[in-house]
Design a protein that fits this description.
By secondary structure, this protein is an alpha+beta fold. Among the domains are: 68-169, no CATH class; 237-347, Ubiquitin-like (UB roll), CATH 3.10.20.800; 369-495, L,D-transpeptidase catalytic domain-like. It contains 14 helices and 26 strands. It has helices at 2-25, 30-59, 80-91, 122-129, 135-138, 155-163, 166-169, 200-212, 236-248, 265-268, 284-298, 328-340, 463-466, 476-485, and strands spanning 68-70, 73-74, 95-99, 105-109, 116-117, 143-145, 151-152, 180-182, 187-189, 217-219, 252-255, 261-263, 272-274, 280-282, 302-308, 314-319, 344-347, 369-373, 378-383, 386-392, 407-410, 413-421, 433-441, 448-451, 472-474, 491-495. Residues 1-29 have low confidence and may be disordered.
Length: 496
Amino acid sequence: MRRYQRKRLRKTNEDNNAEIEKSETGGTGRASGAGKKAALTAGAAAGILAAAYLGGALFFQFHFLPNTTVNGRDFSARSAETLESYLREEVEGYELTVSGKTGDTDLIRGSEIALSYEGNAEAEELMEEQNAFLWPGAFFSDRVSRIETGVKYDEALLDEKIRTLKAVTGEQTEPVSAAPQFDGSQFVPGQEQEGTAVDTEILTEQVRKSISELDTELDLEEEGCYKEPKYTYESPEVQAACDAMNQYCRASIIYELDQPVVVDKALISGWLTVDENMEVSLNTEAVRQWLAEFGKQYDTVGKTRTFTTADGLSAEVSGGTYGWEIDEEAELAALTADIENGASVTRAPAYCENGTAAVHGPQDWGSTYVEVDLTRQHMWYVKDGSVVMEADIVTGKPTPDKETPQGVYSILEMKRDKVLLGDIKANGQREYETLVAYWMRVTWTGIGFHDATWQTAFGGERYKTAGSHGCINMSLSDAGRLYKMLEMYTPVVMHY
């Protein structure tokens, strides 16, 4: 029973498989015929494609691939001979239009430079370089080439023609490089300026290139034929120069005067220079000139000053050696060092030796001084604003060689029992040789206070007839009193 069931099951399976096969093939014998037909069709199509591909490969062995551009012109599917023929035709009647920034144009004709066609091997080389078997892919990519035309011309004629171009002969402005600019607060890169000056070397190169490639237009600006600024706004050298200049401008020097004088970036910025290589330096000559003006304004030595006399009158006095006098060379060294170091300091300027005074201001002798009225022939010693001594005097005889100089001076020397020596006369003898008990020098040329026992009177107009050789004559007692009161460097104001 089990054996019978297995036989029946096997037969059933066989029948089912047969039905399936029948349904898939559409019936007995038909499947085999259709398959053969499809295979034949596919083979024919492949053969056609292969033939087309090989035909294309053969064609492009002697013609340029699709999307081939030579010297800006389309030579797709054209032969090298066609390209060369075209080049030969282009040489005949060739003209190059040269245009510049200013809108001026020039024409360079082939006939002017004896232009002729010499043939071109590059056309064949360009053909040989391409892979003809890759021609289908050429439809989806561009092949752009530039070749020399194979021309010759008279170089001397071309050079002469270039020299006559408007871009060369016209007015030219040189480009200006970007440079640091002070904006009131700091140095920042300034904008460069383009010019109209051509670079003749580049111009000649581009003209020759255009002719060799038979270009008909040459834009000088587009081809970079103009001189370029060495540095632009974005050049790192310009920014580095700005940084260096800003470092200088960090300095702040405040001079201690009645009205403080400040040297800061507002002044320093004008003293900085930058050369063509963006090297920054401090212009010491500019600093020196400023110090000269500074001295003119604040130096008081020798200047005309208004003086209030001991008895309340107003007088003008000029000349002398007393007062403020800046040592410009010493201060130049100190000031430049402060600036270069970016220092912030408050100080007095460097003064000449003995070139200082009691106070700053027009009456810089302060409240302690000796006053000599050359008109009234009288002197006063003022101590801390109060008159502590006064006396009649005799000053120099009013002649050019003997008159007492007006001005503001100071006591330079104090000695007892001083021998005063006059000038040596033609006979070899001194004009005078006099011993005085009290000597108080006012100038190094020999002017000073001293006792004059030979004078029989003091004050009035005695000086006009019995005046000294320039010194301030005093009685022995008055000279002694003054000597005991005075201190070295006490200001002496002498006026008319």
